[in-house]
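Hello support,

Our group uses your service weekly, and this is the first time we've seen a run hang past the timeout. The protein is Cholesteryl ester transfer protein, plasma. I'm not sure whether the cause is the sequence or the server load. Input pasted verbatim:
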Amino acid sequence: AGEGIGLKISNVSAVFGGTIQYGYGSWLVNVKQTLDFEIETRIDLEINPKLYCEKARVAADTSDCYLKFHKFHLYLQGDKEPNWLKRIFTDFITFTVNLFIKLQVCKEINNVADILADFIQDTAADFLRDGGISVNIGVTSVPVITANYIESYHKGLTNYNNTSSEISDSVFHPSQLTENRMLYFWFSDEVFKPLIAAAHRDGRFQLSLSSEELTVGITSYADKKLFLHGQPLQ
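Update from on-call engineer: The timeout came from a worker crash unrelated to the input. Re-ran successfully.
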C-alpha cells in the first residue's frame, strides 16, 4: 500500500432515540408491544487510510480503523435509573451492540471509500470515452495520499478498435510540480499522436464540400495566385 495520513475525531457526543414495535400472534392470542429507547454515546474515531493498486485501479484501505466508546448507555422507556434486573438486561444489550457497532462502522467506512474511489475512476473513464475511442487510465504505480494532496499516475494509452497505443518513455517527473498541487494533466506527443490518429481513422477529420464551394474555392485561389505574380485579373 502507499503512504497514508491519519484522520482523528475525538470526543464526539450523540444521542439517538426511537421506538421498537414487537408482537406475538396466534389464533388464540395476539399481543403487541412498543418499547421506547434512548442511546447516549461519546466516542473517539481514528482512521489511517491508505491507497493501493488493485487490477490497475486505485483502491482504498481503511482497515486501520479504531473506534472507542467513552460512553454508551441504553435507556428503556425513559428510565435512566433502572432497577437491578433491568440494568442487567440493558448492560447485556449494550455490550453486544457495542461490539457489533465497532466492527460494522469500520467495515462501512471501508465500503464507502471503495465506492467513492470506483465512482471517481468510472466517471473519469466515461469522460475520456467517445464512441470507439477511449483512454486507458489504469494506474502505473502505487498512489500517494498526503495531508495536502492525492497523487496518482495513469497510463494514458489510447484504445481504438481493440488496439492500444504504446508510450515508450515518459518525460514527466514529479519534481516538475509545485508542492501546492491541485489538478494537473500532463499531455505529451506520445499521448496526443495516437489520440489524433484514432480520431482520423474513425472519420472525425472529414470535410465535405459541394461543387459550388469547390468552384468558388479554386477561383479564389487562382485570383490570389495571379495577383501575387503581378498579373491582376481584367
